[in-house]
Each structure stands twice: as structure tokens, then as C-alpha cells.
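User: My collaborator sent over this chain with a note saying "see what the structure looks like." That's all I know about it. Can you take a look?
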Amino acid sequence: MDGPTGCRDSQGSHAVQDELPLNPMGRTGLRGRGSLSCFGPNHTLQPLVTRWRRNQDGAICRKGLRKVLEVLLVKHALSERWALPGGSREPGEALPRQLKQIVRREFWPSFESLLRQGTEVYRAYVDDPRNTDNAWIEMVAVSVHFPDQGDELNAHLHSCDPGMSIQWQVVDKRIPLDANHKAILQKVATLYGAYY
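Assistant: Without extra context I'll predict from the sequence alone. Here is the result:
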């Protein structure tokens, strides 16, 4: 913590009471850090990796007048929903652990560069059931768009976890994601003027 006002978060400094940081959005009814890694803000990175959906002759698919995006998603065997390939980062690390599980190590520096060049589409507190009075999640979401087929990335995708699936899925409002991720994905579709 940075003294009496607490550590920095996306909302600025937050209050501290009894030497514990206070959730900037108010009480949740659960004290302590719960299942989160640390007290105060727990920072996550969600890369939204997209490409244009193409038909067999290579032309970009459309729904009406809008181009159709595909997004790279992951799914764990025990989960019913797909998810963005991001999550928490270890201190000093640029890439989330989950992303490292699906991208080959030799491509990590290239992906870090792509993230730096990407477009930040969200940076704020996330309403998450794991949040407590003293620990909460703050997310940065970055759009990384491959205007071609994403072959550069496809060659480096793999899952080191046999219980994890990786898939490109069409972006639309029926995509089976958590509500927070859907809202951010809709921002990306708007950014590219794509169908949602």
C-alpha cells in the first residue's frame, strides 16, 4: 500500500480502514480478500483477439452491410461458457497466465508487441462475484485485430492443458460469454464497424 490513502487503482486512490483497502464501489458483505490474490485491486488483462470471418473464396463475410468479426476464445473442460484468453498477471509480467497457456513461448515477445500496439477499449473496476469489501478486480481490455486470417498467430496457438479448448467464434450478441466480456466485445465490434 502507498501510505494512508491506499494503493492506486483505476478510480484513483481508494480509502483504507483498519489497515485494509476499501472497495471503491462500496460494501459487498464479504470481508478479507476472498479467493483473489491480494488485497486492493487485482489487475487483469483481457486481450480481445479478432479477425474478419472469411468465406471459402477468401472474401470477408457480411451480415447485411456489416462485416463479421471472429474472436479467439478459450474454454475449460469444467466450464459451460467460453472466455476471453486473459486473466490475472503475475507481478512484472506483461501476459496473463491463461494466454501463456495457449500461445507458444517463442511468440510471447511478438504478442506483447501486438498488445502495446493494440487499442485499449476498457479500463475500470469489474463487477465480479469474487469481489469483497477489501479486494476487487480491475480490468484492462485491449483489442488486437488481425486484418488477414491471423495466420501469424494461428501458427503459434496450442493448448498445454488437455482440458482447454481454443476456438475462433463469430462475434454476435448470442455468443456464450459472461456479461462483462460481452459488453467489452460489443465495444470492439463498434470500433471496427462490425456486425454484433
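A starting point for your reply to your collaborator: Residues 31 and 133 are 5 Å apart (CA to CA).
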